[in-house]
Amino acid sequence: LELIDVPVVVSDRSPRTQLTESDIVIVKMPKAYLPQGLIIDKEILIGQYTLMSTTIPKGSFVYDSMVENLEDAKDYPSLLLKEGQVVYALEVDLKNTSGNTLQPFQSVDLYVSLVNNRLTVVDQLISHVRILSLKDKNGKDIEKPTDLPKLMLIALDQQQVTVLLTSSKGHEES
Question: Which one, of 110, 78, 81, lies nearest residue 97 by Cα?
Answer without folding.
Answer: 110
